[in-house]
Design brief:
The protein is mainly beta. The protein has one domain. It has a 6-stranded antiparallel β-sheet, with no helix packed on it. It is globular. The two termini are 20 Å apart.
Length: 93
């Protein structure tokens, strides 16, 4: 289980967008994993954007991992559905 709390600024306005993530992961093999995640964005002065996704991960090496996920929006602000993919590089131990 992992979580994250944070804020981000887009550089165009001084307003922050706050966020949280909560995820649960399971290691299927030493290279393949699966996860489910809930997360939301809370822009200042606007309604929250709530989403739920699930996906798979594949570890190419100890420092490179690929992931793919699909999900749904949980309120009218969020998209109805979405897919995502990405590659992560671990820089430091």
């Amino acid at each position: 289980m992992s979580y994250n709390l944070g804020a981000e600024w887009n550089g165009e306005t001084p307003d922050a967008s706050f966020l949280y993530t909560l995820s649960v992961g399971y290691l299927i093999t030493d290279k393949f994993g699966a996860f489910i995640e809930s997360y939301s964005f809370f822009p200042e002065g606007s309604k929250g954007d709530h989403r739920l996704d699930a996906g798979l991960t594949y570890k190419f090496s100890p420092v490179v991992q690929w992931d793919i996920s699909g999900g749904i929006g949980l309120n009218d602000i969020a998209p109805d559905s979405f897919i995502s993919t990405g590659i992560s590089f671990r820089l430091f131990k």
